[in-house]
Prior knowledge:
mainly beta, Methylamine Dehydrogenase, Chain H, 1 helix, 3% helix, globular
Amino acid sequence: xxxxxxxxxxxxxxxxxxxxxxxxxxxxxxxxxxxxxxxxxxxxxxxxxxxxxxxxxxxxxxxxxxxxxxxxxxxxxxxxxxxxxxxxxxxxxxxxxxxxxxxxxxxxxxxxxxxxxxxxxxxxxxxxxxxxxxxxxxxxxxxxxxxxxxxxxxxxxxxxxxxxxxxxxxxxxxxxxxxxxxxxxxxxxxxxxxxxxxxxxxxxxxxxxxxxxxxxxxxxxxxxxxxxxxxxxxxxxxxxxxxxxxxxxxxxxxxxxxxxxxxxxxxxxxxxxxxxxxxxxxxxxxxxxxxxxxxxxxxxxxxxxxxxxxxxxxxxxxxxxxxxxxxxxxxxxxxxxxxxxxxxxxxxxxxxxxxxxxxxxxxxxxxxxxxxxxxxxxxxxxxxxxxxxxxxxxxxxxxxxxxxxxxxxxxxxxxxxxxxxxxxxxxxxxxxxxxxxxxxxxxxxxxxxxxxxxxxxxxxxxxxxxxxxxxxxxxxxxxxxxxxxxxxxxxxxxxxxxxxxxxxxxxxxxxxxxxxxxxxxxxxxxxxxxxxxxxxxxxxxxxxxxxxxxxxxxxxxxxxxxxxxxxxxxxxxxxxxxxxxxxxxx
Length: 586
C-alpha cells in the first residue's frame, strides 16, 4: 500500500495489507527485517529526514513510530476515530502530520509524542498530507475534491483549492521553493500545478514526460544541445531558434549532452544507465556504452576527444575509449551519487562532484589522475551535494556549485578553497567559466542566472526570465552569448555583455537538462526529459528579431558617427533594441 525511501536512499520501507512493515536493503534487494504491531492494514509509511525514525499509519486507527536501526516500536499515537491513511514528517523531523478516514488532519510533536492540534475542514477522507520545504505550510488532499493549505504554526486554513470533476486528490507535493503545488487526481491521468500564493491553477499537464536536466553550447557557440527526461536529446540552431533534429534512443530521460572538441561526435547520458555516442553529421547512433548500474548524471569529453568520462548514481565514474567504445577503467571512491564530471583543459586531471540532497554521506569533490586512475585529493567544504564542477580555461582553478546554494572556487594545485560566492537563494545546478576565465556563470533552482567576477568574487548581474528552475548554463565559445536550460521546458539565449535576453527556444515537451554548441557554432544540441535530443541549424537566415537588431546596429553606427551632424540627445534612439543581434555572426 505504501513505500518510502530513507533519506540516504539505502533503505526502503513498505507497508502491506498483511499488517506488517518490511525494511529492505536497496542495493542488494534483501529484506532487513519485518516490523509487526499493527492490527490493521498499513496504509502509509514515512522516514524522518535523518532516517532514524519510521512513522506508519494503519486501518487500526493508530500511528506507530519505530527505531529504524533496531526495529523496535518507540510509541503508538492514538487520536483518529477511523483508519489512518497518510503520514508525513516535516523537513526538520520535529512535526508529524497524519490524515485519516475521519476527514481530519492531525499534527503531532515527534519529541513528546503529543498531539499538537486537529485540523478540521475536509468533508471527505484525507488521502495525502505534505509539508512545504520550510515546514510552515501543510497541503492536504481529500476525497471531497479539494486541496487545503494550512498554516502549521496556527492551524488555520489558508485557502482551499477546488475542482468539480470528481478529481479526488490522492497525491500532493510542494515544489522545493514552496511556490507551486503539484496534485494527482484519483480518476484523471493529469497533473495540475497550482500557484500557492494566489491559489489559482497554473496549468494542467497532459502527457508531460519530464523536464530539462542539462544544457551545453558547442565550442563555437552556434549549436545548443539539451537533454531531457522524456528520453530525447534535441539540437537547436542558436541564431534562429529552430530545432535541427531530435535524437531518440534512450529508454528513459536524457540527463547530459556533450560535444567532442571537433564537433563530430555527441555523447549523451540517460536515466536508462547508458551512454550513447552519436554522429552529429548523420544524426545516427554510433554505439551504446553499457556498464553503469545506475542513472548517468553527466558526460564529458577530454580535450583531444579520445576519452569520455561518465558518472552515475552507482557512485562510480567510468572512463571510455571513444573510438572503440571499450571501458578503460572505473574510478571508485565516492560514497554517494556522482553528479558531475569535468576534464582539465590538458586532459590529465578529472574533477568529480558527489553527494545526496538528503544526507551528508559525501558532498565532496575529488581530483583524479586520468592516466593512472588514482585519486589525487579530496576537496571538502560544501554542506550538501556538489551538483556541478568545471575547470577554468588555464586549468588552475576549479569551480563547484552545490545544493547548499553556494559556489566555491578552488586552487587545483593545492586543493585549497580560494573563496565562496553567495547570492543564490537555493541549489546551484550549473557553473561554468567564460572562455577568457574572467567571468563565471551560475544557474539555480531560484530561477535565476548570475554572472560573477572571478578575480573579486563579486556578483556582476542577475538574469531573470525563466519560469522555473535553471538546470544548465554555459558560455558560447566567443563568450558573447549565454545559454540556459530550464524546468519550464525552454532554452534561453542571453547577451553576455548586457544581460539582455535574445530569444527563447521552444520545442521540447519536458524540461531541458543539457544544451551545448558544436565547435563550429553552426549546430545547437539539446537533451530533454521528453526522451529526445534535438539538433538545431544555425544557417537558416535571419528571423525578425535578428533582422531588427542588425538594422539597429547600422542605425546606431550612423547616430554615433561624429561627422553625422546628429544631436547628442538623439544618439540613443536605438538603445535597447540592438541587443538581439549579438548572435548575428553565427
